[in-house]
Design brief:
Layout: E1 4-6, H1 12-25, H2 36-47, H3 50-53, E2 57-64, E3 67-78, E4 85-94, H4 103-117, E5 120-124, H5 133-142
Parallel strand pairs: 4-5
Antiparallel strand pairs: 1-2, 2-3, 3-4
Helix pairs in contact: 1-2
């Protein structure tokens, strides 16, 4: 049975493919230009670069039958008003054919374990792609998360 594991440099090409797929699927993000160079730089930074050596960034993947089917990138930071730490995601993506199974929860639980090892007070996820918002919110809630606040967006003039 596949389990989530830490992402490695060798995973970057497949993670870039998932990043392109997420971008294309998202009604919100597909309106924006996609920079493969920027995405690759971020992945390298998170997986083999500064964030890893500073122990504040983490990447996780689930691999099934030799193919990556999901990924999660996240980081730890301090609240702007406190020295206490919070962990949050940059991206959570599961290939469509693997949604509804265990891949999503495996990624979240791996991130939770990693975040706990960094001494965080809270873990927060966002759903900003506009893809399956209600289903994703429900999945988080079944894992003990509570919906809070709202995001608002306005196109700049």
């Amino acid at each position: 049975m596949a389990e989530a594991r830490e992402a490695h440099e060798v995973d970057i090409p497949e993670m870039l493919k998932m990043g392109r797929a997420m971008h294309a699927e998202s009604p919100r993000f597909s309106r924006l230009r996609y920079s493969e160079t920027k995405a690759e730089d971020l992945l390298r930074h998170m997986i083999v670069g500064t964030l890893v050596t500073d122990a504040l960034g983490g990447g996780f993947v689930v691999e099934k039958e030799g193919k990556l089917v999901g990924m999660l990138l996240g980081y730890v930071t301090e609240y702007f008003f406190s020295e206490e730490r919070i962990a949050t995601d940059l991206v959570v993506y599961v290939r469509p054919e693997h949604r509804g199974g265990r891949t999503f929860s495996q990624l979240v639980h791996a991130f939770e374990r990693w975040a706990a090892s960094k001494g965080v007070r809270e873990i927060m996820f966002g759903i900003s792609t506009e893809v399956h918002v209600e289903a994703t919110t429900g999945a988080y809630e079944r894992m003990g998360y509570a919906a809070m606040g709202r995001l608002v967006l306005k196109k700049a003039a």
